[in-house]
Amino acid sequence: SILNLPPTSLTATAISSTQIELSWIEPNGTVTGYKIERECPTGDGFEVLVEDTGSTDTVYIDEGLEPDTECNYQVFAINDSGISDASNEVSATTDADTSDTITFTAS
Q: 12, 18, 84, 99: which has the fewest C-beta neighbours closer than 10 Å?
């Protein structure tokens, strides 16, 4: 049967200044993997981040992002009969980079 039920309850959570963790709920039916799309920074349009995770894991960590950057995500389920509709769209903003020491000089 055609897989048209999308993943649900997608959430995106910044876990550092360079990482966002995605989590979602698997749809009913057989799933062989997930396609993940990202719009980062927002307004750039969605691009394929992962064509097929090849895994039924419902957590994915996007790494190597710029600090203090907002990104949008959507996820699709994949099986032998094709690809589902898109999940809900979510956004998260990576943490600001706190590793740089900011020096204030008195004027």
A: 99
